[in-house]
Amino acid sequence: MARELLRRGYEVRGLVRNGSRRPPDGVKPVIGDVRSAGLLVEQMRPCRFLIHCAALYSFAPGHRREMWRTNVTGTASLLEAARLAGIERAVVTSSSATVGPAHDGRPATEASWSPQTGFESHYHESKLAQERAALAAQVPTVILLPTAPIGPEDRRPTPTGRMIIDAMRGRLVGWLRGGLNLVPVKDVAKAHIDALTAGRPNERYLLAGENMSLRRLFEQLATLSGRPPPRFEVPYPLALALAAVDEARCRLTGREPRIPLEGVRMGRELMYASAEKARVELGFEPGPVQAALEAAVDWFRRNGYA
C-alpha cells in the first residue's frame, strides 16, 4: 500500500514499531505503537489522511487479550489522536467476517452484521468491535472490509498465507464443506487509496473478489504447488474434535494452532460476499484470483517458506 501511495504522488509517513522492519524507500518512518496512540498526535499534525490497516491476526489462545488491545482499543485511541491532530479523513481496515456468511444462497453485503454474541472467531469478534469504535469516532472515517487477501509479500504470514504454505508442503489432505471469498491483495491496497477521496464517511465497503468452495481452492493450490489434491471431505465433528485437542495443546505451550478451532468453525460456512457497493462508489474492479494465487505461491517458494 505504501508503494502505491508513493506512486500516486502522496507523501507518506509509516508507523513502525521499535525493532520492526523498516518501511519502503520514500516513506518517512514514525516509531510508535497504536496501543500508545496519544504519542502520535504531533507526528500526524502535518498529515491530511490516515490509513489504519494495522491489526493482530492470530488464532493462538494466548494472543486474545493482546488482540483486543490492538484491534479495538488501539483503533479507538488512534482515531481520537487523528481528531486531535486535525486529520481530514481516516480509512480503517476491518474484515468481511463482520457481515457474516452468505444467507439463503445470497452473498453477504454491507447491510448485514454478524451477531455480537456467540461469535465463531475471537479475531473477527475484535474486528466487529473495531468497526463499532470506528463508527463512533469524531473524525470522518471510511471502513473497508476485505475478504481473504491473496498475493505476494505475506511475510508473517497471515492464516490465509499459512494455508497456502500448507498446500505447498502437501499438508492439505481434506476439505470442509464451506467456502470463502478471495481477493487480490494489490486491489485491496488500491481500494484503500481510492477510499481517501471517493469513500463516504461512516460507510462500510466490502472488498470482495471471487467466491470459492474450500474444495475448489485446495485443488487449485495443489495444482499450483505440484502436490496431489486433497482426497476427501473431512466430517465436521471430526475436524472439530481435532481442533479442540490442538487448542488445548496451544493453551499449554502458547503456540499457534496447526488446526485452528476458530478456523474449523468458520470452515463449515459459506463466507461469500458481494463487492457491488465498492464497485459502484469506489470503482473497485479486482483482478483474477488465479493470478494472485500464482503470485503468492511463487513468492513463498522464492523466499524459502516451502
Please, could you describe this protein's structure?
42% of the residues are buried. It contains eleven helices and twelve strands. Strands 3-4-5-9 form a four-stranded parallel β-sheet, sandwiched between helices. Strand 3 (49-52), helix 3 (64-85) and strand 4 (89-93) form a beta-alpha-beta unit. The protein has helices at 2-7, 41-44, 64-85, 122-135, 159-168, 185-198, 214-225, 236-253, 261-267, 276-282, 289-302, and strands at residues 12-16, 27-31, 49-52, 89-93, 141-146, 148-150, 174-175, 179-184, 204-207, 210-213, 232-233, 270-271. It has a single domain (33-294), classed as Rossmann fold (3-Layer(aba) Sandwich). With 306 residues, the protein is an alpha/beta fold.
Task: Enter the CATH topology name.
Answer: Rossmann fold
Question: How many strands, which pairing sense, and closed or not: the largest β-sheet?
Answer: 4 strands, parallel
Strand fraction equals: 15-25%
> What is the count of β-strands?
12
- The CATH superfamily is known as NAD(P)-binding Rossmann-like Domain
- Computed CA radius of gyration, to the nearest angstrom: 19 Å
Question: Structurally, how many domains make up the residues?
Answer: 1
Mean pLDDT across all amino acids:
92
The tally of helices reads 11
The ordered H/E elements are HEEHEHEHEEHEEHEEHEHHEHH
The separation of the N and C termini measures: 25 Å
CATH class: Alpha Beta
- Unreliable spans are none
The helix content is 40-55%
Q: Indicate the structural class.
A: alpha/beta
- Based on the structure given, which CATH architecture is correct? 3-Layer(aba) Sandwich
Strand order of the largest sheet: 3-4-5-9
